[in-house]
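re: that chain from earlier
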Amino acid sequence: MSEKVVVPKFEIPSETTHPAIKIIASIAILLLGTTAILGIAIWHRRSEQMAAVAKRDAIIAARAAEAKAAEDKAKAEIAAAIAAKEAARKAAADKEAAKIAAAKAAADKQKLAEADDNSGGRHHHHHGKAGGAKGKAAGATVASKSADDKKPSGPKSTRDNAAIDKLLASFK
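^ sequence. v structure.
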């Protein structure tokens, strides 16, 4: 028994990991950590941008509402001014129409009065020869008065009577 038995040497791997694997794992963990930190920073920045956009949109909407309110107020003021101007123009037209109606009524009244005076004057000139000459002179004055009635009694008006007639017709 003198012979020695040589047993082959087997190496049993240990329970520890290889140092290269440890380095790769630590780099992967470090990469995941930095990616998570970067993702959180990007998400935070994006939410701040969204909040800023929402705030800007709210300010724009408020200013647009203010501008629309100011525009509506200006339109209302313009409409009120136009209505007041229209009312003043209508009042002036009504006043002018009343003046015209009063002038026509006065002219008609004067014509009636002259017609009454003339009819009495014509009646007297039919009696006798002496009254005839007197009647002819009276007739001449009547003719001159009626010719004077046709003449305008003041400076010529520069108003557009067609526009006034059209306005008066619209009231009927």
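The chain has one domain: 23-136+161-171.
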